[in-house]
Amino acid sequence: xxxxxxxxxxxxxxxxxxxxxxxxxxxxxxxxxxxxxxxxxxxxxxxxxxxxxxxxxxxxxxxxxxxxxxxxxxxxxxxxxxxxxxxxxxxxxxxxxxxxxxxxxxxxxxxxxxxxxxxxxxxxxxxxxxxxxxxxxxxxxxxxxxxxxxxxxxxxxxxxxxxxxxxxxxxxxxxxxxxxxxxxxxxxxxxxxxxxxxxxxxxxxxxxxxxxxxxxxxxxxxxxxxxxxxxxxxxxxxxxxxxxxxxxxxxxxxxxxxxxxxxxxxxxxxxxxxxxxxxxxxxxxxxxxxxxxxxxxxxxxxxxxxxxxxxxxxxxxxxxxxxxxxxxxxxxxxxxxxxxxxxxxxxxxxxxxxxxxxxxxxxxxxxxxxxxxxxxxxxxxxxxxxxxxxxxxxxxxxxxxxxxxxxxxxxxxxxxxxxxxxxxxxxxxxxxxxxxxxxxxxxxxxxxxxxxxxxxxxxxxxxxxxxxxxxxxxxxxxxxxxxxxxxxxxxxxxxxxxxxxxxxxxxxxxxxxxxxxxxxxxxxxxxxxxxxxxxxxxxxxxxxxxxxxxxxxxxxxxxxxxxxxxxxxxxxxxxxxxxxxxxxxxxxxxxxxxxxxxxxxxxxxxxxxxxxxxxxxxxxxxxxxxxxxxxxxxxxxxxxxxxxxxxxxxxxxxxxxxxxxxxxxxxxxxxxxxxxxxxxxxxxxxxxxxxxxxxxxxxxxxxxxxxxxxxxxxxxxxxxxxxxxxxxxxxxxxxxxxxxxxxxxxxxxxxxxxxxxxxxxxxxxxxxxxxxxxxxxxxxxxxxxxxxxxxxxxxxxxxxxxxxxxxxxxxxxxxxxxxxxxxxxxxxxxxxxxxxxxxxxxxxxxxxxxxxxxxxxxxxxxxxxxxxxxx
Length: 871
Known about the structure:
This protein has 871 residues and is of the alpha+beta class. Helices cover 29% and strands 23% of the residues. It contains 19 helices and 41 strands.
């Protein structure tokens, strides 16, 4: 409405004042309501038109406009580069009326290998670095589309998507791209809107594509089914994802957290060690990371670092962290994980626009929406092709009529005084449409040749067949899905690659123990019923041979101590079950108990079947490919597998060896691939052979024969046996001896073996066999929990085919259950896990047997007769 203006009389001598301009459309509004409405309009504009991606093509408007503009400019992957400034000008002038820096930095990010898992723009020039360096000005850099980006725009000219007018109504721009590529999942995105934010991680195209194919074939697939294909995020900068709990949560609900850790290893030096970082977490600025580590050292939060430098080059990242002398590298590295951005938490928030509404989506929902988008694209593309084919067929039908009546038509045209009369005459005489008549008038004389006539007729047949096929596709949704499946398979063959980010199983919420625990030697014991505990090695006092020992554990009448060995507190413990499975645990995760306590049930520490029994434990510092795990079964089967194949930990364990019916795994040890191995049986036989006689095989395989056992005999010991060492044998009645390793001559695997000790009524069955050095310490432990620790050199070295001497005095009704070597802590430290320092850990306690029967069997055969049967 117009405001009324009061008119007053003008005094004499004064000029009339100018009239006020009338004000139209003035309304009274409460300011709170006006601000609320205006802010909501602004918020929705930011949400829909700026900050959140569309679930169909995974792009925000600015990304979509940049790619579309480059496509319209013909900047394909096989065309010359063009200046970035020209691209930015095109986008600004036609589609995106905002700042030029916003458009340019969008272009830059799509060309950075450390930002996108699959780059959409091929940049030439300085496009920034992982150190946070700014790209060169747009007038210096050049760009073009990547081939994979063209998959996002293919068929856009076939009416596959809707267009809308641009800001000036001068041009049209696509609302969404056809997107043959599942870009939202493979490249992810992040954005902050008003009152909400999105943070979607990138994934591996191989996993997503195979998952899509499975979902097309099985629309009712569950999340568990899908995670067999889609393992988790795959960041362009690699690293480790610690645990899969956050992944499952994010895939199920759309929200979750994953812990991303740098890839680092320790390079050992003569005096100092170095920590080498080769991959950093996604979106971590490497230069700022170095500054942060330097600040942590300066503030005393992280100790033990003497130097820090960046040796990265175009080949990859290499951050060198030099440590001080005698510093524990594992502790320093874990401190860095805890306090620096060598380890970060990536919060997943799978928020995207669905029909212009922001929604938090699960993995299955996201994939279903993309498949639905592809169904719409294929359907519209097919309809477009059908329309074109029908138009073409319509024209070809007219040309075919003309060719059948060519003489009459030529005469009609010649008689016509104008084009319009000729067209009208054709339409009336031959019942043709205007388009058909026009096509006949425009037909060249060369079409009158017999060859050209045949081509027109063949083209008409081909076009009619195409029309039938296209109509069939439009009438059958299964055919549309099969086309999507074929196109996805084609994408997979073009762009598949390996994962860069490795997912480590387990749950890693934070570093709470490992980063602060110093390395020290501990004793791990396990009872027959599966109770384990950890004690300091100083718990046991040294005694002379023949001593009574001390109480190592309190056991019940039904239970007894079965295994004991010495490890480093930071070692991994590989637990091998008698059913051939292996489980992981850190040594410091085994609960520490008092000397007389029986410990904790191992079933409470491992995800193990209650019917399984742990028969071997091995400490491992690093899962490299230079060492092997060598296993032996009760029936004499042996197997060698590369240690690196056991690096992927699973809470429920993995298969270490496939066992025959009735067979059990009795032990395992770590070797360097060139060791001499000794297998020993409970009846006092042993066979020594070269490890190279056993070729490495995969985890889930059976193995080969190691020793040819006699009836009712079983393998009870596995050890490495090199010249210069001695073989220590202990029997259940406390007798034993040491014998020079040279007395066990090399025999090909699978032989009967030679006599190791006389197993008679006095000695009883063999309990364990160790290969030892003179300066080693040995610990014997009985079924009633009595332990004795002594030096190996206190035990005499005698011949192989002998009865031995008393090594441990036993109480009434007691017998020896186990023995363990103790590495001398005063000697030179040896890397734990190498064959030189590995304690023999293969042991199983056999049921009692008739000692007289065993002695009689040995006495019936002369020692030389067994040697004659060696194979």
